[in-house]
Specification:
By secondary structure, this protein is of the alpha/beta class. It contains seven helices and five strands, in the order H-E-H-E-H-H-E-H-H-E-H-E.
Amino acid sequence: MARLKAHEVDRFLKQGKSDFATVLIYGPDDGLVSERARLFAKNTSVDLSDPFAVIKLEADDAASDPARISDEANTIGMFGGKRLIWIRGSTQKNLANCLKGVLEDPPSDAYIIIEAGDLKPSSALRKKIETAKSAMALPCY
């Protein structure tokens, strides 16, 4: 299982680099979720001010096109280097199905951050992330 306890998240983020291509950051505290997502984003070494390197998607938009996340994650950057796909939004319906490709075959030059609200352990998105070898779930309580 690729998930941490809430008290382990800060230590994980302070380590800097991550071996996980996809990270789900979730919890009832939206401010803490966003703060930890920004910290993880900084740790990726992707230039966060480069609009060609950072792709921001709303969860509804990402879920409406099942291939979009995989396409974005496997696109070669215009100027090379790693890319960051940052998915935000409270609606996570059908998003789990859209992650299948990137979880089974993780991108080598991209990170995916998913900011989510409070997810129950039975949530499809949370289950999908927690059982994938290339992903990590970070709770924020």
